[in-house]
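sorry for the late reply, my laptop died twice this morning and i had to redo everyting from scratch. anyway the thing you sent over, i finally got around to it. pasting the sequence first so we're on the same page, its 377 residues, then the predicted structure underneath. double check i copied it right bc i was rushing
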Amino acid sequence: MTDWVTAYIGLGSNLGDRERTIRESLRMLGGDGSIEVTRVSDLQETAPLGQVAQPNYLNGVAEIRTGLGPQELLQRFKATEAALGRGPHAKWASRTIDLDLLLYGDRIIRDNGLIVPHPDVHLRSFVLEGLCQLDPDLIYPLLKVPMRELLQRLGGGSFVLNQDAPQLISVAGVIGVGKTTLAKKLGEVFRTTVLFEPYDTNPFLPEVYAGKCELALDCQLFFLVHRTKELGREILPPGRIAITDYVFDQEMIYARRLLGPTQLALYESIYRPFFRMVATPGLVIYLQDSPANCLQRIHRRNRPYEQGVSLDFLEALDGDYQHMFANWKASPVIRMPASRLTGYAPAVVEHLVLQVKAYVAMEAELMGSNGPLALSC
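ok and here's the structure:
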């Protein structure tokens, strides 16, 4: 026995009487006095992950107090699962009951097949929702951030890291927020390709900023073709990190701001098939600052064609970006205040890089790996 600690268990079932089995598992765990079940989150219906045909899961999270050590706790989980009819622990298999040790105090454990915290916690909304219901300020020891922040990053979705897909990291935000500087810094850290927006090579952009609205469609099509050539699924190498200082989806933001109704209708018809060709980011870093601060940066960097950008235009773009990421479902989003990166202090960069690695498949070993987080996967 060890000192009593607070731990958290992931609960899942997709066979039989799911709720009854989950409740029975908790009763069995608390049967001998070495585990006290203190709180249980609401149970929620979730679709299976892993692109497999299975019944839906019922998932939740339990908070316990226990005097058992981590390995002893794991053995209790396995015994309870077996007693309730769970079969072999096959990846993505259906199960009558699944008990996962999510957290054991604030300890980080790599011991004889046991990995705690569970390495997929930050990728599963159904787990984070349960943890946040119990304690939204609980710190995830691997990333040093609270559960509520991890939940916000997922936008209600759950994700599976895929080593066979391009590991695309996109830095997004309004003009002048500092995207290119951050993308370059990440490129240096990860020693990888950075794909930049072709501002300086787009022959139509200075003309459009000068007020020649008739060239706005040409300008947008130039960006569309260039970005599709950079981000095509068949172009980006699988399993390799690539970084952009833009997100492809911003094309429609600028199109709606710069194109007239006839141009926009034509552009939208062209955009859709191009959109289907590009790789989806594995992670977006949404860099945020006030439009007024962004305008100051624009003036300081003194690109001639940008000097006519108005505060009103930046404020409108800022609203568009906020709306886009409030409804973003394609990938996790790390929201980063630009002020936090001022001077790029080593500790700040190190913390951000730690966050990024958690959402990149080729870096999964650095986060630990214990197979998929069972629950609804």
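DSSP finds 13 helices and 14 strands in the chain.
thats about all i looked at so far, will dig more tmrw
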